[in-house]
From TrEMBL, chain A:
This is Putative tricarboxylic transport membrane protein. Keywords: Membrane, Transmembrane, Transmembrane helix. It comes from the Bacteria. The chain crosses the membrane at residues 20-50, 62-83, 109-137, 149-181, 201-220, 257-279, 354-377, 389-406, 464-486. InterPro entries: DUF112_TM (IPR002823). Residues 21-438 form the DUF112 domain.
UniProtKB/TrEMBL annotation, chain B:
Keywords: Receptor, Signal. SUPFAM superfamilies: Periplasmic binding protein-like II. It holds the Pfam family TctC. CDD domains: PBP2_Bug_TTT. It comes from the Bacteria. InterPro entries: BUG, Bug_dom1. The keyword Iron does not apply. Belongs to the UPF0065 (bug) family. This is Tripartite-type tricarboxylate transporter receptor subunit TctC. Residues 1-26 form the signal peptide.
């Protein structure tokens, strides 16, 4: 087998270059730290390190950047689980159930599961990248505006399943997010909407809003009672999940990784979307969907394997076609070009040795991520032992620094603080924050692509049903929205009365005109 | 020499105390680190040019130059910040072609006159690129098809009002054709759509399609430049074909208009030395970017020419406010 041969050769070449491995380790560690800090994302980490790779040999530079990429996607989960502060947008989905687990005193297991799932999802995606790249690459090109629109609509339908106790409140949050998403430059016409003359508002300040809604809101809430660390176990007792627990997640992780890889390949869709989609599908296939949102380990496993599955998928289209699957790989494209490696179909032909050494290195990066991740968790877990009077100011300071770092903009800090105040009241009145984040990711994507698809088709709506991928995705979206209603009707008919619905299964209340 | 400059500074300073502060500081320029504001995100083309320049110019200035990215508003946020910076030479910026296009859209507080150009570093023309399986082998065939099928040819660009959209519009108005302009979120997604055959052509720069040209999946039909591209000598210019359209994006160093002359001189001299370094040119070449140095005064002429052209064009196509 050609690929296996080349991979073994690559591994040999790799272990003769200790410097490259050291830099990879540095990249992974830095990536985890960057990912864990609110505001600093994997994209930013890669962009910051890019100039330092100018003077390195291609392998070292690219491995370091891959390390930051992988570590950055994973690192977001640590603070998401421990403090409900998603370090990256992808971790916003992890925070939903991860933090509930921490509240139940199961932070250790949640962190361990997140680490293993990230490792498994990421490793699976790199293997797909190595062995199936040429076969799968063409798939990405099938995705035009109408398919991206359908994917975004499907993404929006997920609001129903991440709403927690009340679907109505989830939908209200979702629509709030959609309204916010209309602020900024019109994606097709290019004129400003609802910006009040502020050029800073030309792009929806998405990450400041997310930091505000999650992290700042949580900090404001803990200002209410600075003394106690209510209802949380002080230490992480067990990190590595027991086998009987983890075994049940294997199917879930495999499915989520697969979804992550596919979403990673789609241009313009990244780890954030993958994490939410994986959450939704894990809930759909779960035997206990009513536990989702209340601290379900499967949710954490799904989000993390989905998000890291994205890495290999995004790299796949970037390396084979020269088209980046997400924002991080768009920056990495520049890194490759700088090293004289022109991504595209010729890369595998002209630089096969280097490419496969790089692949071997990526697998090593994921092993490093697992080791560094597990090794640092105990240390990270001490955050829970910090008194609130110390932790809360630290979190607020981090929020401000992290927000400022995105665009070096003071304006963003005010946005973040305003979102924090809104988030505080949303929490008080039980409005979930994650639908807002989801709507901010999916809303602009749906709008821009719907209008782009219309102008591609010359104004005809035919693309909604004549393109197979679009039609399938839209159908799934409608089913996702209708399923709770259908289930309820079916339950009524089989039991003969409308009063038998378990009130805990929140989603079954959806759409019932009582 | 130093004393003479100080005297000059003092004379100017006598006019008002505020300008005196600036001038005295300026006499010693630079005495502290210089911030180079880049109006686009880290890792993008403009950012890479800025970082390569900062690397090179650091060897020719007594103080270091650091890159700061101020993104947003399609460049409007960063460019406004450069314009509004204190004119003492410690906040300089990467000025891009958007200096001449954004004011017409009514979304910017600046015009091209608000900046003093120091040095143009790089320029990339627009090019008409089609899929390799497309039936058109030459630009004439492509334009003939567009003439027979008005509005049927979909040209992908990097956003409405962005430079590649204006390039396609310029071609349309000059040759009397009607295209369907499809805005994407940057040049790369537009190229992706072209690869998937979802559109007929893109108007992005040759550098942005070079890997696909090398792989044989895309074909450049013409470039909108005064002369043929060194990297793709087979692609004719539109001028050769009798269509007088040249549209290019460019990037260079600019400072606020009121910056004192000696600061401008220091920066111009240092920039000239920096761009003459082989390392800088190699760095650009590695990124598929063309070296297009122009000294301050010539850069100003080029900028004014573009400002005039886009003013007319954007009014014509109804984009200007």
């Amino acid at each position: 087998m050609y690929e296996l041969d080349m991979l073994l050769h690559g591994a040999q070449a790799l272990f003769n270059q200790p410097m490259a491995l050291l830099l990879a380790l540095f990249g992974v560690t830095l990536g985890i730290i960057i990912g864990a800090l609110p505001g600093l994302t994997a994209t930013m980490g890669v962009a910051i390190l890019l100039p330092f790779t100018f003077g390195m040999d291609p392998l070292s530079g690219l491995l370091m950047i891959s390390g930051v990429f992988f570590g950055g996607i994973y690192g977001g989960s640590v603070t998401a689980i421990l403090l409900k502060i998603p370090g990256t947008p992808a971790a916003a989905a992890t925070a939903i159930d991860g933090f509930e687990l921490t509240k139940k005193g199961q932070a250790g297991i949640a962190l361990g599961t997140a680490t293993f799932s990230s490792f498994l999802g990421g490793t699976a995606s790199v293997f797909v990248l190595i062995f199936l790249a040429p076969v799968l690459a063409r798939f990405a090109l099938e995705f035009s505006a109408s398919e991206s629109f359908a994917l975004a609509v499907f993404g929006l339908s997920i609001i129903a399943s991440i709403s927690g106790v009340s679907v109505i409140k989830g939908l209200i949050s979702g629509f709030l997010g959609l309204l916010l998403a209309t602020v900024g430059l019109d994606p097709m016409g290019g004129f400003p909407r609802y910006t009040g003359g502020y050029t800073e508002l030309f792009n929806v300040p998405f990450i400041p809003v997310m930091i505000g809604l999650f992290a700042a809101a949580e900090a404001f809430k803990s200002l209410e009672d600075p003394q106690v660390r209510a209802g949380m176990a002080a230490a992480l007792d067990r990190i590595i999940p027991p086998w009987h627990m983890f075994r049940r997640q294997i199917g879930n992780i495999a499915r989520s990784s697969g979804l992550g890889i596919i979403i990673g390949m789609i241009p313009g869709a990244g780890a954030d979307i993958a994490a939410f989609v994986a959450y939704n599908e894990a809930k759909r296939f779960s035997k206990t969907p009513e536990n989702y949102g209340k601290g379900e380990l499967g949710a954490v496993a799904a989000c993390e394997s989905g998000a890291n599955g994205c890495t290999g998928g995004a790299l796949l289209t970037m390396l084979t076609l020269g088209i980046p699957g997400d924002a991080v790989t768009a920056v990495m494209l520049g890194a490759l070009t700088l090293q004289g490696l022109q991504p595209g179909p010729l890369l595998f032909k002209d630089h096969a040795d280097l490419v496969f050494t790089l692949f071997a290195g990526m697998l090593v990066c994921y092993v490093m991520m697992l080791v560094v991740g597990l090794g640092s968790l105990r240390f990270m877990g001490r955050i829970l032992q910090m008194p609130k009077s110390v932790l809360t100011p630290c979190i607020l300071a981090l929020c401000i620094v992290g927000t400022y770092a995105i665009n070096n903009s003071l304006f963003d800090i005010w946005i973040m603080l305003a979102a924090g105040v809104v988030g505080y009241f949303m929490q008080k009145w039980d409005f979930p924050a994650s639908p807002v984040v989801l709507a901010l990711i999916m809303g602009p994507m749906a709008e821009a692509n719907f209008r782009r698809a219309l102008s591609l088709s010359g104004g005809s709506y035919d693309f909604l049903y004549t393109r197979p991928i679009t039609a399938v995705l839209l159908t799934i979206a409608i089913l996702t929205l209708m399923l709770p209603l259908l289930r309820r009707l079916w339950a009524q008919r089989s039991s003969g009365g409308p009063t038998t619905i378990n009130p805990a299964a929140g989603s079954s209340r959806m759409g019932t005109p009582e | 020499m130093k004393g003479y400059r100080f005297v000059t500074g003092a004379v100017v300073g006598a006019l008002t105390s505020a300008t005196m502060m600036v001038a005295v500081q300026a006499a010693e320029y630079p005495t502290k680190a210089i911030e180079l504001i880049v109006p686009y995100a880290a890792g993008g083309g403009t950012d890479l040019v800025a970082r390569a320049y900062a690397d090179a110019v650091n060897r020719h200035l007594p103080q270091s130059v650091g890159v700061v990215n101020k993104t947003g508003g399609g460049g409007a946020v960063g460019l406004s910040e450069i314009m509004a910076a204190r004119p003492d030479g410690y906040r300089i910026g990467m000025g891009t072609v958007e200096i001449t296009t954004l004011p017409n859209l009514g979304v910017a507080r600046f015009t091209a006159d608000d900046f003093t150009p120091i040095a143009r570093l790089n320029a990339e023309p627009s090019a008409i690129t089609v899929n390799a399986n497309a039936p058109w082998k030459t630009i004439e065939e492509f334009l003939a098809y567009a003439k027979e099928n008005p509005g049927k040819v979909r040209i992908g660009n990097s956003g409405t009002g962005a430079i590649w959209h204006l390039a396609a519009e310029a071609l349309a108005t000059k040759s009397g054709l009607k295209f369907s302009h499809i805005p994407y979120d940057g040049a790369n997604p537009a190229v992706t759509a072209l690869l998937g055959n979802h559109i007929e052509a893109v108007s992005v720069s040759p550098a942005e399609v070079s890997s696909h040209i090398a792989a044989g999946t895309l074909r450049i039909l013409a470039v909108m430049d005064d002369q043929r591209s060194k990297a793709f000598p087979d692609a004719p210019t539109l001028k050769e074909k009798g269509i007088d359209v040249t549209v290019a994006t460019w990037r260079g160093i600019v400072v606020p208009k009121k910056t004192p002359a000696n600061v401008v001189e220091t920066l111009r001299a240092a920039s000239k030395k920096a761009v003459e370094e082989q390392g800088f040119r190699d760095q650009l070449a590695k990124m598929n970017l063309s070296y297009a140095y122009l000294d301050g005064p010539e850069y100003k002429v080029a900028m004014e020419k573009d400002a005039e052209m886009f003013k007319v064009l954007m009014k014509q196509i109804g984009l200007a406010k």
